[in-house]
Amino acid sequence: MTIFSSKLPVSRLTPTAANINQPGESPQSSPRPAHLEKQKEAKFSELVPRYIALNQPHIDSSAPHPFHTRSTAERSNILSQNLRLKRQVAAPAQPTGEANSVIMAAISTMPSGGSYSVGPEARRALEDSIRISLRERRLIVTPTNEKPTFDTAATYLVFLKSILEYVNQAAKTGPSSYFSLRKFLVSGQRAGMHIWGRWKALGPGVACLIKEADLGINFTDPYAAKPGDFMKIFRSETVGKKETSQLAIYIGKDVRNGVAYIKYWSGNSPEGFSFKEEPMHGMRAIFSRITKLENIGNLQLLPKINDYLSRINMEEGRRHPKQGTTLSPINREDLTMEEALRQCGTVTRPPV
Question: Pick from 117, 129, 148, 181: most CB atoms within 10 A?
Answer without folding.
Answer: 181
